[in-house]
Amino acid sequence: MSDPLHIVSFSGGKDSTAMLVRMLELKMPVDLVLFADTFFEFEVMYEFHDSFKRWMGKYYPDIPMKTIATEATFDQWFHGPISRGDRKGEVRGWPLLAFPCWWSRESKFKPLDKECKGNIRYIGYAADETKRLAGDAMKSDSYQSPLGDWGWAEKDCLDYLETKGIATQLHRDFNRTGCFLCPKQPRASLEIMCQKYPKEWARARAMEDSNIRAFHPKYSLKDIEDGLHDRLVAPPEDKLKNIDLDAIIANAKESPKCRNCDFI
Q1: Any alpha helices (H) in the chain, and if so which ranges?
Q2: For 168-215, what is each residue's pLDDT tens digit?
Q3: Could you tell me if 23 and 12 are in contact, meaning their C-beta atoms sit under 8 angstroms apart?
Q4: Hey, where are the domains in the chain?
Q5: What is the pTM (predicted TM-score) of this model?
Q6: 186 vs 171: CA distance, rounded Å
Q7: Residues 6+ apart with CB under 8 A from 186
Q8: Fold of 6-181
Q9: What pLDDT, in 10s, does the model give residues 120-172?
């Protein structure tokens, strides 16, 4: 029986990136780097992934980086019918806030679990993500969290990337950088996307318009767009002083409601 491989789950977010770069610096064993493509990463993330892969090829040519993806499509699930329960037959629509995300399961967990089976898997859970570190998966010897072992919090990861000149604006804008259309992300994150990432915002708006259910039970993406317009487009002078873009960005770093994916 061959020895297990040491596989790094690399999302391109600040935590998994900091983990991988530091592991390489410490000459920890890394046999394979896996990126699970959800098909809904930010365009900047795909650009970062490509540049990081070139960097790996230059300095660590013996460590392959592999992109894996599900054969399922988001449209099949988004527009498809619910197969069981009280809502059986209804159009599924956006992932529900109260339940684990079906697209995270299909596009990330299943492909990664299949690829990593029988091997050692390194996951970028930061030291201050106590619930994730205490999860059932981390009780297995096959799952390792170097960031937790080093005591690195999420801010430490960003600071480390800044010192290395690796951090992107995406890492600075968001605490998590997964699917841009995740309804579990904080509202402030959506406001940042609306203002700074127009391509992703347009795609999310189009998806919302094509479904019978709103993006979020308490508000739609249009509500966010209209609200920002009222606050940021030629507001009255007495309201202008109350707009704090730095605070909006800070609030975008609030953790999402869903802790089982990297939204990031």
Answers
A1: 14-25, 43-59, 74-78, 102-104, 110-116, 130-133, 146-150, 154-164, 169-173, 187-196, 198-209, 221-232, 237-240, 245-252
A2: 999 999 987 888 988 888 899 999 999 999 999 999 999 888 876 778
A3: no
A4: 6-181
A5: 0.82
A6: 16
A7: 251, 252, 254, 255, 256
A8: Rossmann fold (3.40.50)
A9: 999 999 998 877 777 766 667 789 999 999 999 999 999 999 999 999 999 99
